[in-house]
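RESIDUES AND SHAPES:
===
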Amino acid sequence: MGLGDKAKHAAEELAGKAKQGIGKATGNEELEAEGRADEAKADLKQAGDKAKDAGNDVKDAFTGRD
């Protein structure tokens, strides 16, 4: 998994949190819900990144790479 993808997914999570906070502060329930959804999508992407990294670590352990 590329470092750029990981940074992008982390930025998406922060944007979701910000959108959620703005929605909460302004009483905009739709914006708040959209922020929660964006954050959840980013969390799923980050979980996928971690799973892929773990798979690569296992593969590297069997092939003798560091």
About this structure: The two ends are 15 Å apart (CA to CA). The mean pLDDT is 91. The helical segments are 3-26, 29-63.
